[in-house]
Write a structure and sequence with these properties.
The complex is a heterodimer of chains A (about 80) and B (about 500). Chain A is mostly helical. Chain A has one domain (about 1-80): Orthogonal Bundle (Non-ribosomal Peptide Synthetase Peptidyl Carrier Protein, Chain A). Chain A has 4 helices and no strands. The N and C termini of chain A lie close together (about 10 Å). The relative contact order of chain A is 0.20. Chain B has about 500 residues and is of the alpha/beta class. Chain B starts with a helix and ends in an 18-residue tail after the last strand. Chain B has 13 helices and 25 strands. In chain B, strands 11, 12, 13, 14, 15, 16, 17, 18, 19 and 20 form a 10-stranded mixed sheet that branches. In chain B, helix 4 crosses helix 5. Classes of the chains: A mainly alpha (about 80), B alpha/beta (about 500). The interface of A and B includes residues 31 and 58 of A.
Chain lengths: ~80, ~500
């Protein structure tokens, strides 16, 4: 499940931010800012909506601070706990 | 009524809540006393008529008190978006040259990082270690000379996003603000039974217009610093909010979120402005919540221009409605002649709520303020029922969910990166209701996207940072060196 979940989240991020990489190339430790992810509240909220829709979960955006949106690992850990 | 002091004074006996934020609630009676206290404190700090006071605060009771206290003593309020970064803050502070800056403990640090010489000017009203405990401050006794305030005195500096890389300063007078509050509240039919929720910054012209109209009508204003779905839903449901000014992005998010539609049943007027409201978002929201969003049109130069209050909203949903009281709207064709019904042209506006020009920018003023009208740069038409429709714009501006971005400003900062030779920035259509920013960059040497983003992150507000960056060999230009943006995409 965790690998499947990871893959799904990577796909969501790659599509949403039009990243020119494959899921296998996604560096889980690289800061999101270097991918252009999590830059502003509008883009963050769009990402949360997409994750909610795809994974059928509810997220309180107030809990998604800069620590959660630091890199893939931190976001994944948060989502994994929310499921 | 010639100024807001008289309006707040008139309501001083009302025990009902005037302002409610996360931490507290104050009545109209409190509002009068606290404004007098803060005004007298400001007067004791030798703030005099026409001195500028910057207000660097999010939506809060402290913001509202600071704003009205500035107006009370004839000082000019300069609201600065607390989401701005160093370079931007520096620009607004340099341009307005405030005698005092009202802020919070946490935002004080950001101001000092911008310029540590500002320390002497800063007063913190919000946080753990405030310089002035405004809620327990006793009236100092400095008498306010309200009679010295003339209706044509400057009341507030707002900034309009330009397309030259520099925001243009717009001064609005006491008369402009009072007229705006009167015209908007009379057109919409506001009264003191209404409760309005603000999640958009009241420092910005759209929410500001609604806010001063609400205070003039003795309504209860709920102030939130940010938009959060859970909180918005709780407040609307618990407090039975009747009016909520939004941008289309907020409507879209609410329509897509897991929210019980019953939570919104108290809402009577849902206003959408800042960006065009698409039919898709209108339908999604209306179907889910059973209330139709109403488009409002305005600008920093004019305040509220029009609002769609038509009974038949489903067949007029694309319209921004008819002009509010006291506003004249005309459509002018390229040859300068008046357009006929349904004929396309530029929307021009005349109103007693509008400014007469940009400060210190005679050329820019001459270009768009002509014969008593403001040339908005928006393209559209008026139908046979007098309804205004907007379907384009002349100005080079990108609209990020209601936040206007000048591409030239972003290009200038990108070009200041040592590895960037040149850059071009455009807005690209994004999802159903808004745009996002794409940058095309020519580099001197190999550069990572991350490097560029980190560089921008320290210099401009987050919403101005391009979501998409493409490295290219060259930027298409005309023989005169003008970027050919229509060839980018």
């Amino acid at each position: 499940m965790s690998e499947e979940l990871k893959l799904k989240i990577k796909e969501i991020i790659i599509n949403k931010f039009q990243l020119e990489i494959k899921t296998a190339q996604f560096d889980e430790s690289k800061p999101f800012i270097e991918y252009g992810v999590g830059l502003d509240s509008v883009a963050n909220l769009e990402l949360i909506l997409e994750i909610e829709k795809e994974l059928k979960i509810n997220i309180d955006e107030a809990e998604i601070g800069s620590e959660i949106l630091f890199n893939f690992k931190s976001l994944y850990n948060f989502i994994n706990k929310s499921i | 009524m010639n100024n807001f002091y008289e309006i707040i004074e008139k309501n001083q006996k009302l025990e009902k809540p005037a302002l409610v934020d996360d931490l507290q609630s104050i009545s109209y009676k409190d509002l009068f006393v606290l404004c007098n206290n803060l005004s007298s404190y400001l007067a004791s700090k030798k703030i005099r008529k026409a001195d500028r006071i910057a207000i660097f605060l999010p939506n809060s009771i402290e913001f509202a008190l600071s704003f009205f206290s500035c107006l009370n003593i004839g000082a000019i309020a300069v609201p600065i978006n607390p989401k701005f970064k160093k370079n931007e803050i520096q620009y607004y502070i340099n341009d307005s040259n405030p005698k005092l800056i009202i802020t919070s403990d946490t935002l004080r640090t950001i101001l000092l990082e911008t310029n540590n010489k500002l320390e002497k000017k800063i007063i913190s009203l919000k946080g753990e270690e405030v310089d002035l405990d405004i809620f327990n401050h006793k009236y100092l006794g400095d008498k306010l000379n309200i009679n010295s305030i003339n209706e044509n005195d400057k009341a507030i500096y707002l900034y309009s996003t330009g397309s030259t890389g520099i925001p243009k300063r717009v001064t609005r007078t006491h008369k402009n603000l009072i007229s705006l509050a009167n015209n908007h509240s009379e057109t919409v039919g506001l009264d003191k039974s209404e409760k309005i929720l603000f999640t958009l910054p009241i420092s910005h012209t759209y929410a500001l217009g609604n806010f001063i109209a609400a205070i003039k009508s003795a309504m209860t204003c709920y102030l939130q610093g940010d938009f959060n779905r859970k909180k918005v839903t709780q407040i609307i449901e618990k407090e039975k909010i009747t009016i909520y000014p939004c941008v289309p992005f907020i409507l879209d998010v609410l329509a897509q979120s897991n929210i019980d539609p019953k939570s919104f049943k108290s809402l009577k007027l849902l206003i959408s402005a800042g960006a065009p409201l698409s039919k898709e978002v209108f339908d999604k929201f209306s179907e889910k919540f059973g209330i139709h969003p109403r488009q409002l049109y305005g600008s920093s130069e004019t305040g509220v221009i029009s609002i769609n209050l038509e009974k038949d909203i489903t067949s007029t949903l694309g319209s921004v409605g008819k002009p509010v009281k006291g506003v004249t709207v005309k459509i002018i064709k390229e040859d300068g002649k008046d357009a006929n019904t349904n004929e396309q042209g530029e929307i021009i506006v005349k109103s007693e709520t509008m400014t007469t020009g940009y400060d210190n920018l005679p050329e820019e003023t001459k270009e768009v303020f002509k014969n008593g009208f403001y040339y908005t740069g928006d393209l559209g038409y008026v139908d046979k029922n007098g309804l205004i429709y907007i379907n384009g714009r002349k100005k080079l501006i990108i609209n990020i969910s209601g936040n206007k971005v000048d591409p030239t400003e972003v290009e200038n900062i990108l070009s200041s990166h040592p590895k960037v030779k040149e850059a071009a920035v455009i807005g690209i259509s994004h999802q159903s209701s808004h745009e996002s920013i794409k940058a095309f960059i020519v580099c001197n040497e190999k550069t990572e996207k991350g490097e560029i983003i980190v560089y921008l992150k320290n210099k401009i507000a987050d919403y101005k940072i391009p979501n998409i960056i493409e490295f290219v060999e060259n930027i298409p230009k005309s023989p005169t060196g003008k970027i050919l943006r229509n060839k980018l995409g």
